[in-house]
């Protein structure tokens, strides 16, 4: 599937090492290399961690296609209604290559 319809739209990307990134898709290619603008990494803490979850700004960001596990459009209204500092969850592990 081509990601061209997602250009200039806000997307969410899960990476092979378990990171969650959001940003505006500026460019992509046939290898799923992605260029995101206004990129934010969401660091979701587990329930037993006393620190709040956080959003780390990265700005302009390149993700190599081999690191993209899944990406999709982000519902900006729903996303803005969530207090990400209060979100807790299990850590998403990286993928294993056999």
UniProtKB/TrEMBL annotation:
Family annotation (CDD domains): LSm8
Domain Sm: from-to ranges: 1-77
Main subcellular localisation: nucleus
Keywords: mRNA processing, mRNA splicing, Nucleus, Ribonucleoprotein, RNA-binding, Spliceosome
Superkingdom as given in the UniProt entry: Eukaryota
SUPFAM superfamilies: Sm-like ribonucleoproteins
Localisation per UniProt entry: Nucleus
PROSITE patterns for the chain: SM (PS52002)
The UniProt record lists the keyword Protein biosynthesis: no
Subunit relationships: LSm subunits form a heteromer with a doughnut shape.
Alphabetical list of PANTHER family matching this protein: LSM1, U6 SNRNA-ASSOCIATED SM-LIKE PROTEIN LSM8
Known function: Plays role in pre-mRNA splicing as component of the U4/U6-U5 tri-snRNP complex that is involved in spliceosome assembly, and as component of the precatalytic spliceosome (spliceosome B complex). The heptameric LSM2-8 complex binds specifically to the 3'-terminal U-tract of U6 snRNA.
Stated family: Belongs to the snRNP Sm proteins family.
Protein name per the record: LSM2-LSM8 complex subunit LSM8
Species of the source: Stereocaulon virgatum
């Amino acid at each position: 599937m081509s990601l061209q319809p997602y250009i200039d739209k806000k997307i969410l990307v899960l990476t092979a090492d378990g990171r969650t990134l959001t940003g505006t898709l500026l460019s992509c290619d046939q290898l799923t290399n992605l260029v995101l603008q206004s990129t934010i990494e969401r660091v979701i803490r587990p329930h037993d961690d006393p620190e709040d979850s956080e959003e780390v700004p990265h700005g302009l960001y390149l993700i190599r296609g081999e690191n993209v596990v899944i990406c999709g459009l982000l519902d900006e209204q729903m996303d803005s209604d969530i207090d990400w500092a209060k979100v807790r969850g299990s850590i998403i592990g990286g993928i294993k290559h056999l």
